[in-house]
Amino acid sequence: MSIVVIGSFMMDLVVRTFRAPAAGETIVGSGFSRFPGGKGANQAVAAARLGGNVTMVGMLGRDEFGAEMLSVMQRENIATECIRRHEAPTGVGSIVLEESGENRIIVVPGANLEYSASDLAEIEDIIKEASMLVMQLEMDLSMTELAIATASKHHVPVLLNPAPAVPLHDGLLRNVAYLTPNETEAGILTGQTVRTIADAEKAAQELRSRGAGCVIVTLAANGALIVDENGTKHVPGYRVHPIDTVAAGDSFNGALAVQLVSGTPVGEAVRFANAVGALTVTREGAIPSLPYFAEVERFLTRQESKSS
């Protein structure tokens, strides 16, 4: 069961600080780190570490960061033959990470935006044979729309993580089997304020009315809300001490994709993905924080023993 991820690569440049500076303010940070990341790369590695058969598609620069990212993908046993290189620099993410674990991120897409519809035409057969296509919104939007339409044409289910969120038209949503916004993204997609589980349900119902299949709103420590043709289900999260929330959503999406293509019912798949996200935030970095399947199993066993 194969998963194709078309997505971004970002080299994350992380500054740790007690709190983020206010406008015009300079403060002293407590540390600096560099981690490979990007929503597409994170989701691909998350899925691969959990047992997924993953092909990564995207664009890297012909630079040091690009070479490092490609090496990371290969070490994770991800198929890389569909990764292309470009003269534009590899994407970078500038991240301010507070002691609370909260983060503020600015991304400079660079080569990610150079992956085009013409590049996509070369991999249509790979999409056609996939069990699922996983996408985000850090690449060219017209290419993203075409990729989703291509998967739909071949009856390949699409999991779309709409981040960073932008308004999406109903024609695109009708081709999405699983839409996974967080609260902020659900608000941007619908123009609603989403602060509570009831708000999340209202936003998800609107997105379904516009064509999306199953809408799964991630709620950080509160777990996730599933809204589909069977109704609404809240799947609680797991309480942990967060160190770094970067890649938490990406790990959730990678885990969800692996579970769904394995035939796991969506409620159980979300429970597993919640556990993966919880483990991810207890570690620093994007790709370095992503757990392996055995770690998730041990975590779930501990959680079950606590509740019994």
From TrEMBL:
UniProt-recorded Gene Ontology molecular function terms: ATP binding; metal ion binding; ribokinase activity; tagatose-6-phosphate kinase activity
Compartment(s) of residence: Cytoplasm
- Extract the CDD domains matched here: ribokinase
Q: Where the protein is mainly located, per its record?
A: cytoplasm
Record-annotated active site: 250
Q: Does the keyword Iron apply?
A: no
Q: Which InterPro entries match?
A: Carboh/pur_kinase_PfkB_CS, PfkB_dom, Ribo/fructo_kinase, Ribokinase, Ribokinase-like, Tagatose/fructose_Pkinase
Q: Where is this site: Important for substrate specificity?
A: 10
Keywords for this entry?
Answer: ATP-binding, Carbohydrate metabolism, Cytoplasm, Kinase, Lactose metabolism, Magnesium, Metal-binding, Nucleotide-binding, Potassium, Transferase
The biological process GO terms on file are: D-ribose catabolic process; D-tagatose 6-phosphate catabolic process; lactose metabolic process
The metabolic or biological pathway listed in the UniProt record of this protein is:
Carbohydrate metabolism; D-tagatose 6-phosphate degradation; D-glyceraldehyde 3-phosphate and glycerone phosphate from D-tagatose 6-phosphate: step 1/2
Q: What is its EC number?
A: 2.7.1.229
A GO cellular component annotation here is: cytosol
- Positions of substrate binding: 10-12, 38-42, 138, 250
Please list the residues that bind ATP: 182, 249-250, 274
Q: What class of enzyme is it?
A: transferase
User: What transmembrane ranges does the database entry give?
Assistant: none
Pfam families per the UniProt record, alphabetical: PfkB
Please give the catalytic activity noted in the UniProt record.
2-deoxy-D-ribose + ATP = 2-deoxy-D-ribose 5-phosphate + ADP + H(+); D-tagatofuranose 6-phosphate + ATP = D-tagatofuranose 1,6-bisphosphate + ADP + H(+)
Q: Which residues bind K(+)?
A: 244, 246, 280, 283, 285, 289
Its cofactor is:
Mg(2+)
Provide the family line.
Belongs to the carbohydrate kinase PfkB family. LacC subfamily. Belongs to the carbohydrate kinase pfkB family.
- Protein name per UniProt: Deoxyribokinase
This chain's source organism reads Paenibacillus contaminans
